[in-house]
# Entry
Amino acid sequence: MSKWIRIALGAVLIALTAQVYAQGVLEKSKVHIAVGGKAAFYYLPLTIAEQLGYFKAEGLDVTISDFAGGSTALRAVVGGSADVVSGAYEHTISLQGKKQYFQAFVLQGRLPQISLGVATARMQGYKSPKDLKGMKIGVSAPGSSTNNLVNQMLVKGGLVKSDVAIVGVGLGAGAIAALKSGQIDAISNTDPVMTKLEQDGAIKIIADTRTLKGTVDVWGAPLPAGCLYAPIEFVKKNPNTVQALTNAIVRADQWLAKATPQEILKAVPEAYLLGDKALYLFSYGKIKEAFSPDGSISDVGARATLKALATFDPQIKPAEIKLEQTYTNEFVKRANAKYK
# Structure
């Protein structure tokens, strides 16, 4: 093939790619999303987008696989069995520290929504985070964002990771059972699990990122949390598919910003309510401000996340992290322009 033919073919390919992008033709209509603990409020926008048909409205055929925690959901994408993660933004930074490049493209939660509680029976000897030493602490899955809250509290107490035992307990009824049966001494988890344990008098909260004030107390700044993220190569190769996913989540974010409690009850599966509708609504009231209103990832929040992670993860060296690669608001801007 001559040089001029190759150049001509290259020009045609570029033109066709631009035309496909302009027309919004999906490069990949069937998308597999991995999530860790789908029933948690942390991922409520994902559930809303699924239940209200927002993915289908964008021409997507989405399969959602639920795992015990965010770290196991991430492994599904790293291993190639899923395309996109619905998980914590902070993982995009942790992965880059390991030379794995992922990018978040739409936000579900602007606060972590995770709290850490000590079993009431163990609170007698608890005065500060240093008293976590020797405890068995339940998290959704080792390495997940629930685990990172524990790591942060260990730093505050002058402890190291080996001072406690981390136990994976999931994000649902199993987590409640693990605490109440005495398998663990403390638990870092999301709602409605934590509110259920609080109401039952089973735990006392010692760190709370369900509110802005609580998040600032723990981390020093509000941190972006639940989002959709994928390998950067996937984002680059499938811009229209990523745009469609973003559109669906932004619509869900916007719907949640205006929805009544009763509308939310109608939208979520019955199994998510833990057999108690009143508890579910009470839990929702405690974390409502944690949801993103528009899907945007804050530059300030991204920098705060990097600073926070670097305090306990030696693989993260801030000077070596290209933070601008870990997230983009390009798709969110288009989605908000489309759904005003």
In short: The two ends are 50 Å apart (CA to CA). The longest helix spans residues 3-23. The chain has two domains: 3-111+224-338, 114-208.
